[in-house]
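BACKBONE GEOMETRY TOKENS
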Amino acid sequence: MAFQYENFVITELASQASEASLSLAVRDLTKIPAVTPGNVIRLTLYDGDQAPELVDMTSKDTSSITVVRGREGTSARIWRKGSKIFGSLTSEMLEGWMKLHQIWTLQSMNYLAVSGDLIMADTSAGSWTLTLPATPQSGDAVQIQDAGDSFHINNLTIARNGSTIMGLAENMLVDVQRASFTLIYNTTTWRIS
């Protein structure tokens, strides 16, 4: 399921909802858009007296919305009539967005990479070393691009940091202009992809 983002989603419960309720009666369905098939709309239930609950709306009919309760570590609970229901950005939604819209960082001096890094490596001012994570897990990845079109003049060294690269117990020297590659750890070695 993918998140569907909508602006100005706000309404209230039209009746009390038990902690087991998967269908919530709401006052004004015009404030809640239809859910595109395969998507969910993340909503917050809040009454001012207890901790909020996050729910995923999967559909709506003429008087209620269907939800999956207790998302992102929140707990399903009893909600009184008039409790607010609104859409807002949550940490899980933001993390998912960041994974989809990967952000590259520019590095131009010695750097210790972490899994998931997208590195635009600039060696135009001189050679430097990018050190791979010390305790990689299977599937960890680091992407690297020649940001200064200068790997052939000022090489980038990839320090293995205790692991092997392509099965070799030696650092990797990158000396190809405009090189762009990903290093992926496969439980035994960093592989070039």
